[in-house]
Design brief:
- This protein is mainly α and 177 residues long.
- Among the domains are: 76 residues, Anti-sigma factor, zinc-finger domain (Arc Repressor Mutant, subunit A), CATH 1.10.10.1320; 33 residues.
- It is built from 8 helices and no strands.
């Protein structure tokens, strides 16, 4: 089984760990196809190193790129204005809507939950009505039904109501002692 290009590239860069490095090296000794691909990767590696720019060659381009980004993406901050010369922009749509909603909620809370006004009981009688013993009901756990609670006749009637066809044959009748 041949080695993939990613593993060969890692081997070429010297970043492959020892157990794998030895195995790839042994594989390259007998596999001509992998040696050929490794040669192509080495040639590509050398070409890329030969066209790499030095820092002095990149300095002019780097300054132009940084100036472009500073001008378009990071504009200079505005000069600070004094407090008395600053203008404030306030968008009235969302602010007015928020204030109106707040007023409605506060007035509604006063009307509904005020104990002195009977209006709350007319609007939502279940919310303001006092809790007393007449409105409380005790709930108990009922035993889960099992087959021992029903007679054979009740079970057959229930199955018949569900649409099952029940046929019972008795082979012998022996009394229970």
């Amino acid at each position: 089984m041949c080695v993939d290009d990613e593993l060969l590239s890692t081997y070429l860069d010297g970043e492959l760990g020892e157990p794998w490095r030895t195995q790839v090296g042994e594989h390259l000794q007998y596999c001509a196809a992998c040696r050929g691909r490794l040669g192509q990767l080495e040639a590509l590696h050398h070409r890329l190193q030969s066209v790499a720019l030095t820092d002095s060659e990149m300095k002019g381009s780097k300054e132009r790129v940084m100036a472009f980004f500073e001008a378009t993406k990071f504009p200079a901050p505005e000069q600070k204005r004094h407090l008395w010369r600053r203008t404030f922009e306030l968008k009235l749509g969302p602010t007015l809507l928020s204030a109106a909603a707040f007023v409605v909620v506060v007035i509604g809370a006063f009307i509904l939950f005020s104990p002195d006004t009977p209006q709350g009981q007319e609007i939502l009688p279940g919310v303001v009505a006092p809790i007393d013993s007449e409105h409380i009901r005790q709930v108990t756990d009922l035993a889960k039904p099992d087959l021992g609670m029903f007679s054979l006749e009740q079970i057959i009637q229930h199955l018949d109501a569900l649409g099952y066809s029940v046929k019972i044959e008795m082979k012998a009748v022996t009394p229970i002692e």
